[in-house]
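Recap from last week: sequence in, structure out.
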Amino acid sequence: MIMSKTKILLHTDSAYFTTYVHRQLKKHQFEILGYWFNPQIHPYSEYRKRFLMHQLYSLIEDLPMVFFFFYPVEKYLQNYPAEKGKPEICNYCFHMILDKTAAYAKKLKIPYIATTWCADPGINQKLLKQVGEAVAEAHGIRFYYQPYYQNKKEVYAASDELKLYRQNWCG
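Predicted structure tokens:
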């Protein structure tokens, strides 16, 4: 457990999973800045739902956020893997988004990054941890990973109490 107010940049993709992760990071005394960059979310109607829900969550729960107000799905799809298997897509998505997160953290001199994906039981957690650590190391920072997905009941309960929208897919 980290006891001082260490800064962390938290990549977020849904208010639903952010709720639990944000609360856990606060308990561990992190100074948290949320980071919204999610070109993988489509169609646009889904992107907009998650974006608006996340704005609401950040106001209700006092989570300072950096929002990228553009929808870069075209850029995301330009290099989308030809092999349509889930591991290839997850690897591509994790690298692209966590690399952007780590670069932004380094620019702000924030020593840690994390992602709310660690609370999603549908995500390949082993791959997420590997990619997160490699990307963070490449930028000279650290990836803070906790297997929050193992606390599925608590993760769902935290956001259900706020009646937050829960999507049925990752992208």
